[in-house]
């Protein structure tokens, strides 16, 4: 019991001695860190306003603001630790060794971060663009350092690791995505009349659904065994891609019927 009391007394004496000798340094370090935190928030808010004023990309703005904020906080933390009389050299060496080990263990994750940094700086696409990559497509909702998030017309959310974007073939079609379809008409019909009818159907759709800036293309693609095949190409809004395609196909079918333009079906001569 006496030994335990003696240990507690020694521990208590060490605590008292520490606060007596380092109380002012500790208070100073806390004040420096709090002031640094305040300055970091103010500076980052100021930088954010400048970026927004110059209409800089949202993702790039967040990246710049966070880098500035954390750089200031880390610098202030180093100063505050130095105020306590703690030598940082062994600490920095330890961080370097730990970073090397972590880097080897997290190569895949770090490659995602590197690719994300390349996307943010290079800006091959921005939030709101439609991209097709690695067999999937969707509207870019958010670009993070580790991954990029896409959304689809069905309300699905697709998360793509950034290392699967950089170095791959990337298609950026901005707000729209191209629709390509083929309509067959019989050889008795006038293809010029059919092209005119289909073009009128496309023009009747709103500009927010089918792009008016990129003109739709309608023309003869090939001469098939049973039909003249007319190809239809237009840009549909990504968020309404399939819905627009279905409505356009129905509109074309009705318009061809109304104008007595027949869509043939294959016929075969079967020898008995």
Topology, element by element:
Elements: H1 2-53, H2 58-83, H3 89-105, H4 107-122, E1 130-133, E2 136-143, E3 147-151, E4 157-161, E5 171-174, E6 176-185, H5 191-203, E7 217-223, E8 228-237, H6 241-258
Report on this structure:
There is one protein chain. The strands form 2 sheets. Strands 4-3-2-1-5 form a 5-stranded antiparallel sheet. With 272 residues, it is an alpha+beta fold. The model has no long low-confidence stretch (mean pLDDT 83). It has helices spanning 2-53, 58-83, 89-105, 107-122, 191-203, 241-258, and strands spanning 130-133, 136-143, 147-151, 157-161, 171-174, 176-185, 217-223, 228-237.
In short:
With 272 residues, this protein is α+β, with helices and mostly antiparallel strands.
Q: Give the low-confidence spans.
A: none
Helix content: 40-55%
Element-level helix/strand string: HHHHEEEEEEHEEH
Report the biggest beta sheet as strand number plus sense, adding barrel if it closes. 5 strands, antiparallel
Shape: rod-shaped
What proportion of the residues form beta strands (DSSP E)?
Answer: 15-25%
pLDDT average, as an integer?
Answer: 83
DSSP, total strands: 8
Rg over CA atoms, rounded to whole Å, is 33 Å
Amino- and carboxy-terminal Cα gap: 112 Å
Strand order of the largest sheet: 4-3-2-1-5
Please, what is the oligomeric state?
Answer: single chain
Give keywords.
272 residues, 6 helices, rod-shaped
